[in-house]
Amino acid sequence: MEDRLPRKLAAILYADVAGYSRLTGEDEEGTHRRLSEYLDVVSASIEQHQGKVVHYAGDAVLAEFGAVTEALTSATGIQRELASRNQELPEERKVEFRIGVNLGEVIVDRDDIYGDGVNVAARLEALAEPGGICISGAVRTVVGKKLDLDYVDMGEQKVKNIEEPVRAYRVVMGKRGKLANTSAEKPALQLPDKPSIAVLPFTNMSGDPEQEYFSDGLTEDIITQFSKFRSLLVIARYSSFAYKGRTVNALDVGRELGVAYVVEGSVRRSEDRIRVTAQLIEAATGNHIWAERYDRDLEDIFAVQDELTETIAATVGGRVAADGWQQVRGTRTNFKAYDLVLQGQALHFCVLKEANTQAEAALAQALELDPDNIRAHMMLGAVHLMNFFEEWSEEPETSLSRALYHGKRSVQLDDLDGQAHAHLGETLLNLGKLEEGRVHFERAITLNPVDIVSRALYSLYFQQIGKAQEAIDQLAVVARLDPFELSWIPWFRGEAFYLFHRYEEAIESLLRVSEPISDVNRWLAASYAQSDHRDEAGERLKHYLQVAETEMPFFPGWTFEAWEPIWRKEYAHQPYSDHVCEGLGKAWACLAAPT
Question: Is the pTM of the predicted complex or chain greater than 0.90?
Answer without folding.
Answer: no
